[in-house]
Amino acid sequence: MSIYFIGDVHGCYNELCKLLDIINYDDNKDQLLLTGDLIFRGNKSLEVLKLIYKLKNTNVVLGNHELNLLAINNGILLKNNNLAVTNNLVFSSELEEIINWLKLRPILIINKIKKFIVVHAGILPFWGIKKIIKYAKEIEFILKSKYCKYFFYFLFKNIVHEELFELFTLNKLKCIKFNISVFTRIRYYYNYYQLDNNYLGNPVNKPIYLIPWFNRVQILNKYSIIFGHWSVLLSKYTPNKIYNIDTGCCWGKKLTALCWDNKKYYYVNKN
Ligand SMILES: [Mn+2]
């Protein structure tokens, strides 16, 4: 039995199939964990979701694009940046069953025996493991609950439905919103942990005041971190025990798998 991670697929179904072939993935023996952003940008998002949904020993953390899809499905976001790509997925009759499955996916996967965590974008460096688990569970709890729709209004439109106060105070809701941004969107922060959404480039040419989230992460004495979301890194620039496996397949580069047992990388180039 081997554990494999695969980075952001973004609707690149053909490349995903090829990569599973290359690693000789066996659904009865192996485990597959994906870093999220399975969908959008590429044009075979539905095929990707159906494939992952059907595999038995697979899990995926939610990325910002899965959250967008859930918000579209709740009628809160109307469209994604590429309407043709979005429509193909959003108006599919097969989507409902998959959405019900997607809503139950975690924000964070933790393996306490193998000592790794999987997250879409990242964490804050000073977060300890207990805090990380607690923050992820709070988000997962809301997404699974009947308050999910109201929470998406808050997340995407900043509209506060008072039903939400049956769960949390406004301050707590703001913290949860911030934590979602960290888990699903963070690249750099500045000034006491404000997130930067403007500079997407690699750390070599970064503005001096920005700090990549993966510098000085405190849990590395115990855990490794596998993440996606930041394709310009191309698996470089990160410290030991932090693995970026989004290698920009949807941008014409490649799709990456990492085998946990031997830390070997496998690649498929974009067709
Ligand atoms: Mn992303």
Condensed summary:
By secondary structure, the protein is α/β, with parallel strands linked by helices.
What keywords describe this structure?
271 residues; alpha/beta; Purple Acid Phosphatase, chain A, domain 2; 4-stranded mixed beta sheet; binds manganese (II) ion
Distance between the termini: 30 Å
What share of the residues lie within helices?
25-40%
Could you say how many structural domains there are in total?
A: 1
CATH topology: the name is Purple Acid Phosphatase, chain A, domain 2
Q: Helices and strands: which structural class?
A: alpha/beta
CATH H-level name... which superfamily? Metallo-dependent phosphatases
- What small molecules accompany the polymer chains? manganese (II) ion
Strand order of the largest sheet: 3-2-1-11-12
Low-confidence stretches: none
- Examine the secondary-structure arrangement and name the CATH architecture: 4-Layer Sandwich
Number of H/I helices: 8
Largest sheet: 5 strands, mixed
Mean pLDDT score = 94
Provide the gyration radius in Å: 18 Å
Strand percentage lies at 15-25%
Basic shape = globular
User: Which CATH first-tier class would you pick?
Assistant: Alpha Beta
Q: How many β-strand runs?
A: 12
Order of helices and strands: EHEHEHHHEEHHHEEEEEEE
Folded structure, characterized:
The chain is built from 8 helices and 12 strands. The chain is α/β, with parallel strands linked by helices. The chain has a single domain, classed as Purple Acid Phosphatase, chain A, domain 2 (4-Layer Sandwich). The strands form 3 sheets. Strands 3-2-1-11-12 form a 5-stranded mixed sheet, covered by helices on one side. Strands 4-5-9-10 form a 4-stranded mixed sheet, covered by helices on one side. Helix 6 (129-144) crosses helix 8. It is globular and about 50 Å long. Bound molecules: manganese (II) ion. Manganese (II) ion binds at residues 37, 63-65, 120, 229.
